[in-house]
Write a structure and sequence with these properties.
The longest helix has about 30 residues, at about 315-345. It contains 17 helices and three strands. By secondary structure, the chain is mainly α. Helices cover about 70% and strands about 5% of the residues. Helix 1 runs antiparallel to helix 2, helix 5 runs antiparallel to helix 6 and helix 15 (about 315-345) packs antiparallel against helix 16.
Length: about 425
């Protein structure tokens, strides 16, 4: 990398290193055992995470040495490879926590769904970069939807609903590239209708009928065109059909424990010792940390293993208990700074490929960050997705590292001719 136009963004890399190292410190704290206190004990999680960190750091350096055009040229190949891996997982995947989403390679387990986000982001960025057209065209929307839905549905068939939902984050880069704002509004409306259908059930249909009558009265009084009548009718028919389909989707798509977690969040049932146990214990652990925390390795609730999955999906409770409000605030600030930095870098890209890919990276990281911390705090349903760069897991850390550094490599040579 001798070209003077190459500028690596060390600020983003610094934030990445902080999150990975601080994450390992908390993994060590969450898994601490006097019998396995050695840092280089590779038989326990914190030792294994050091291996994944070493692999990730070597991978990051390797990516920075590759010409950025390479990633664009092989985007569809990578996408095809991860789709094949997802299909293969359906046949030979091992079951962990109710989901068939892992492929065993001896002592190593690979989770293809983590890499599917990277492959999808590359493929969509390649498509958008090649056509360089308005995303409001129907044909373009169909192709982009297929790129997203194929891996999402395959992951859903693996009973990994949380990872499948992450693909909804691609709506944000689509919106940035010119997707109609009405589609985003329809997405928000669908979420509102879904929650309302669970809360008030069939009374929602009566509400939709009343609103439709009022809207038609307004249209009649304002003497709108016949086209307006038809568009309005189609809209309310779609709302009605969607509402009627909620029960089916809720019963046949989500697992029973996922349904119960949503009911607990909505206040329809109380189960503090069952499905609500994780969240309740996590909130107790975070609250007990106070302003400055109990100190490193002094977390009593996490040490007693009262919080399940405290080194993976619920690792934020370890931060809250041992580092307190200030430590939690520092971690959240690091993520916000990284997201803002990525959006800033994406906006200054000269190619559509790099800009769209950058926004995809920011959107995926934001979805993971927002959902993970929201579910630990009891503000969102527990769907089981890791905190990027922070939670324990080799597939997760390597996939997120690849996702981030491919974009940083694009940005490093944005002004170079290659």
């Amino acid at each position: 990398m001798q070209n003077d136009n190459i500028r690596i963004d060390w600020f983003a890399i610094g934030l990445y290193l902080f999150l990975v190292i601080f994450g390992w410190i908390n993994i060590y704290a969450a898994c601490y055992n006097e019998m396995h206190a050695e840092i280089l004990d590779f038989s326990v999680q914190h030792g294994k995470q050091l291996i994944w960190m070493g692999i990730s750091f070597l991978l990051a350096v390797s990516i920075l040495l590759i010409k950025p055009r390479v990633f664009s040229n092989i985007a569809y190949i990578i996408y095809g490879a991860v789709v094949l891996l997802l299909i293969l997982t359906l046949f030979i995947g091992s079951v962990t926590n109710g989901g068939q989403s892992w492929i065993d390679f001896g002592a190593f387990k690979l989770q293809p769904s983590e890499f599917a986000k990277f492959g999808t982001a590359l493929a969509i960025a390649k498509f958008v970069g090649d056509i360089n057209t308005d995303l409001k065209k129907r044909q373009t929307q169909v192709v982009l939807s297929a790129f997203v839905l194929i891996p999402a549905l395959l992951i859903l068939l693996q009973h990994d609903t949380g990872s499948a939902l992450v693909f909804a984050s691609f709506i944000l880069p689509f919106f940035r590239e010119g997707l109609s704002q009405y589609i985003l509004l329809f997405g928000v409306l669908a979420i509102i209708l879904f929650v309302a259908a669970l809360l008030v059930n069939k009374f929602l249909l009566i509400g939709i009928l009343l609103v439709a009558c009022l809207v038609y009265l307004f249209i009649w009084l304002s003497k709108r065109t016949e086209k307006t009548y038809w568009h309005t009718a189609i809209f309310f028919v779609c709302c009605t059909l969607f509402t009627l389909s909620v029960d089916f989707a809720f019963e046949h798509v989500l697992e029973s424990h996922q349904r119960d977690r949503i009911y607990v969040l909505l206040g329809k049932i109380e189960d503090p010792k069952g499905v609500g146990y994780n969240v309740n214990q996590a909130k107790i652990a975070i609250g007990s940390g106070g302003i400055i925390g109990k100190g490193f390795l002094n977390g009593t609730i996490t040490k007693a293993d009262f919080v399940p999955e405290q080194e993976t999906d619920f690792i934020f409770c370890t931060v809250g208990e041992e580092w307190g409000f200030l430590g939690s605030l520092l971690l959240i600030a690091a993520y916000v700074l990284l997201l803002v930095r990525l959006i800033t870098l994406a906006e200054r890209q000269r190619s559509s490929f790099a800009r769209f890919y950058g926004y995809s990276v920011a959107a995926i990281l934001f979805f993971h960050f927002f959902i993970n911390i929201g579910m630990v705090l009891g503000l969102l349903p527990v769907i089981g997705i890791p905190l990027p760069f922070f939670s324990y897991g080799g597939s997760s850390l390597i996939a997120f590292t690849t996702l981030l550094f491919v974009f940083l490599r694009q940005d490093a040579e944005r002004n170079a001719l290659f």
